[in-house]
Structures are given as structure tokens and as C-alpha cells.
From TrEMBL:
Signal peptide: none annotated. Catalyzes the reversible cyclization of carbamoyl aspartate to dihydroorotate. Residues 54-427 form the Amidohydrolase-related domain. This is Dihydroorotase. Keywords: Hydrolase, Metal-binding. PROSITE patterns: DIHYDROOROTASE_2. GO terms for biological process: purine nucleobase catabolic process. It is an enzyme of class 3 (hydrolase). The lineage of its organism: Bacteria, Pseudomonadati, Bacteroidota, Flavobacteriia, Flavobacteriales. The keyword Oxidoreductase does not apply. One of its GO terms (molecular function) is metal ion binding. Its EC number is 3.5.2.3. The keyword Hydrolase applies. InterPro entries: Amidohydro-rel, DHOase/Allantoinase_Hydrolase, Dihydroorotase_CS, Metal-dep_hydrolase_composite, Metal_Hydrolase.
Length: 448
């Protein structure tokens, strides 16, 4: 039975651009008090000495594929949300390309019902746009749904929105934030045909970034941005993978005032095309992991605030599926358990500060999606909190991978930092590879 209050003592709090020593009092689901020193007023307070560890707001991951309903051989909301809290991600926004797809209000509600029963982390879902569901899009409640997701490049089922008139109508009609996957389908098809002619189905994986090329990404991203400017739509471009695309985005105004924003994923900040030789299809993503110059350009834009958010695009597939030849191996990989440890590793390598990690993974998703009372360590906010030991190395191996698919692109990597405790809405949900059987997660709401 959890005490009504939890007092975390002697912690280094990372929040809003600074790190300071202090104590935090949690009461129920909320942060009650933050101070240099807080004393327990009654015996009914669980006092926890953090011994100088770092306290971060829970990460908000704005792009995951948890595969439920319909693709549960790969993952479920339950399995992947548990992996998420083990990785310090306390809230996720899940994508609509499940089976059936989340393109009607009825299917959206079914996903909310599943998450309410099984999710270990706070949850919301994006609604999917198609060439013919504008009527359903207009029924969506913006206080309950994170955003509208449009595939402007390849997608499963009928989710590719490739009719320019429909696209303009959606951009002009919805008040929802529009999140887009940008890769130009015609360019990719032409590139693929060229390589299939040479290699058949077993195209060497090193050609993935030649097929899903810089040109394919830039054509699509620039068109989406042009349309957003024309219609006044609020646009968020997912998973930038090229240095060239970063020139399309600005750092001239604060995030809260931006109408056009961008995200980068952990894998595009970590891997390059040199890693295909060792990792093969296990780092096959759409858009593709590209060159060192692209990775360098993404880091530059992230640190100078042209790129606003770091996310995962967590998209698991079974080992059997991933072991296929190039044209049959699906794109995507699992990341929620290892994204924050990977970014903390980049802190150790002096690529990024702790304050910047928190800004890009916690504060900015909350600002960008207008998530209510999350993403910051503030009095009156939900106590979604993550304790991190920066000097407690561990290696990723099949025995500690928590994804249902059982593998990770980080297998064999050693991280110097580990997530030791994760609080979800004031409740300790995870501690050092152990989960507590608590139902603390809530549906995210949006201040719109």
C-alpha cells in the first residue's frame, strides 16, 4: 500500500534549463512541494533518500507504434508501455497504423479502452487521415487526441494520403496539430525499381539510404511545409533524417509560438550508414539512417533549436520478419527502453547537456502538444518522475530486453547511466528492472 505522501530527499533536479539540489514532496498524483529541504510532517510519509541521483521529468514520447490491435505478435500496449517506463518514458502518443487502422472514432475509442485496462504509462493516440475520412477527422475532440497523423510517403493499408486536393482540404479544415511522415513515394518507387533490376529482391542493405534518399525526404518535407504556410495549419514533421531538411525549420521564435516544428529520432542521432554492415536490417527504418554528414547536421539543428523534439518511432517487428531479405524485411525497430539511456550516453560523450535532453524529451513535447500538467517538475503538476544514476553501467542483452519482440538495435551496447526508479502519477511503478503491479497510468489530456 503506497503512503499518501512520498518525500524524495537529496536529489539533483533537472528542470527548465537548470540543475539544483533539493527535495520533492509528492501527494497523491501530484507534486505538492519542491524545496531545498523538506521535512516529513507526519509518520504517514514514505521518505526516500535519492543520495544525489538526478531527477528528470518523465519523458513524453510523441511517436510510438505499439501494434495493438491486430499486430500483437510484434507487441502490445501492455508489453511496450512496461518497456517504456523501464526506459523513463512515462507518457506515449501512439500511431494509427494498427489493424484495423485508427481512422474512425469507433476504432480510436477501442484503443483508449485497451490502454485504460493494460497500459503502464500515460497514453494518447493519434487519429489517422486517409484520402476519404475528412468527415471522421472533423469529429475528433482536440482535448482528448494528441494530433492527426498523415502519411505523405509509404504507409500500410490505405493510409497514404496522396490526393493533393484532399490534402489541402484536410490542412485547411482541421484545428488539430498535423503530424506527418514525409518521404516522396514516386522517388522511392523509381529508386527501388533501379536496385531491383540490379539485385532482385536481395538488395544489399547498404542501399537503403539510396532508395529512401535525401531527395525523397526533402521533396516531401518541403511540400508539406509549403502547404502548411499556405493554409495556416499547425504542422509537426516527424523523424527528420537529412541535414538538408533542417534548413526548412527556424529557431527564430519560441516553441510555443511556432506553427511548423520538427522532430528527430534517437536512431538517426546514433547510427550512420556505416552501421549497416554490422547491424543489417535491424537498423532498417523509414526514413533511412543516412550518412555521418546527415547525422552531424541533425545534431547541429537539434542543439540550435531548429529541431524541437527527440522521439523514438518505436516500431517493433519479430526477429523472423527482420531476418528476411531486404525487400521483405519490414522497416522499424524497438527503442522505448533504451532511448533515454542512449541520450544520457551522448551526455557522457559531451554531445548534449542533461538540461537539453530534458528540454527535447520532456518539456518540448508537452509544449508542442499542449499536454496538460506534464513534462515539467513543477508544483501542481502530475508526479511523472524518473530517477537516474549517471554512474551505474549496464549492457543491453537478450536477458534484460523487455520488448515483446525480444531484440534491440542496441544489443551489445553498454550504457553508463541507468534508470533506477520511475514514478507514474505519483506512484512508484518501476525500480531497477522490477515492476510494481500498479495501475497508475492515465489518459493524457490537452490544454486546447
Amino acid at each position: 500500500m503506497q503512503a499518501k505522501q512520498t518525500l524524495i530527499k537529496n536529489v539533483k533536479i533537472v528542470n527548465e534549463g537548470s540543475i539544483f539540489d533539493g527535495d520533492i514532496l509528492i501527494e497523491g498524483e501530484y507534486i505538492k512541494e519542491i524545496n531545498e529541504s523538506i521535512s516529513a510532517k507526519t509518520s504517514d510519509v514514505h521518505v526516500f533518500d535519492a543520495e544525489g541521483q538526478y531527477l528528470l521529468p518523465g519523458v513524453i514520447d510523441d511517436q510510438v507504434h505499439f501494434r495493438e490491435p491486430g499486430l500483437t505478435q510484434k507487441a502490445t500496449i501492455e508489453t511496450e508501455s512496461r518497456a517504456a517506463i523501464a526506459g523513463g518514458i512515462t507518457s506515449f502518443i501512439e500511431m494509427p497504423n494498427t489493424n484495423p487502422q485508427t481512422t474512425t472514432i469507433e476504432k480510436l475509442q477501442e484503443k483508449f479502452d485497451i490502454a485504460a485496462k493494460t497500459s503502464a504509462a500515460n497514453y494518447s493516440f493519434m487519429f489517422g487521415g486517409t484520402n476519404d475520412n475528412l468527415e471522421e477527422i472533423l469529429k475528433v475532440d482536440p482535448k482528448q487526441v494528441a494530433a492527426l497523423k498523415l502519411f505523405l510517403g509509404s504507409s500500410t493499408g490505405n493510409m497514404l494520403v496522396d490526393n493533393p486536393e484532399v490534402l489541402e482540404k484536410i490542412f485547411s479544415s482541421t484545428k488539430l496539430l498535423i503530424a506527418v511522415h514525409c518521404e516522396d513515394e514516386a522517388t522511392i518507387k523509381a529508386n527501388l525499381a533501379k536496385y531491383q533490376e540490379e539485385f532482385g529482391e536481395d538488395i544489399p542493405i547498404k542501399h537503403h539510404p539510396d532508395i529512401r534518399s535525401e531527395e525523397a525526404c526533402y521533396i516531401s518535407s518541403s511540400k508539406a511545409i509549403e502547404l502548411a504556410k499556405k493554409t495556416g495549419a499547425r504542422l509537426h514533421v516527424f523523424h527528420l533524417s537529412t541535414a538538408k531538411e533542417t534548413s526548412l525549420f527556424s529557431n527564430k521564435i519560441p516553441l510555443k509560438d511556432k506553427k511548423i516544428t520538427a522532430e528527430v529520432c534517437v536512431h538517426h542521432l546514433w547510427f550512420t550508414d556505416k552501421d549497416y554492415e554490422e547491424k543489417g536490417t535491424f537498423i532498417k527504418w523509414n526514413p533511412a539512417v543516412k550518412s555521418q554528414a546527415d547525422k552531424d547536421g541533425l545534431w547541429k539543428a537539434l542543439l540550435d533549436d531548429r529541431i524541437d523534439v527527440i522521439a523514438t518511432d518505436h516500431a517493433p517487428h519479430t526477429l523472423e520478419e527482420k531476418n528476411n531479405v531486404y525487400t521483405k524485411a519490414p522497416s522499424g525497430g524497438p527503442l522505448v527502453q533504451h532511448a533515454l539511456p542512449a541520450m544520457l550516453e551522448m551526455y557522457h560523450r559531451e554531445k548534449i547537456s542533461l538540461e537539453k535532453i530534458v528540454e527535447k524529451m520532456c518539456h518540448n513535447p508537452a509544449i508542442l502538444f499542449q499536454v496538460e500538467k506534464r513534462g515539467f517538475i513543477k508544483e501542481g503538476y502530475f508526479a511523472d518522475l524518473v530517477l537516474v544514476d549517471l554512474h551505474h553501467p549496464w549492457s543491453v542483452n537478450k536477458d534484460n530486453i523487455l520488448y515483446k519482440c525480444g531484440w534491440s538495435p542496441f544489443q551489445g551496447a553498454t550504457f553508463r547511466s541507468r534508470i533506477t526508479h520511475t514514478f507514474v502519477n505519483g506512484t512508484l511503478a518501476y525500480k531497477n528492472f522490477k515492476f510494481y503491479d500498479v495501475k497508475a497510468a492515465k489518459q493524457l489530456t490537452f490544454d486546447r
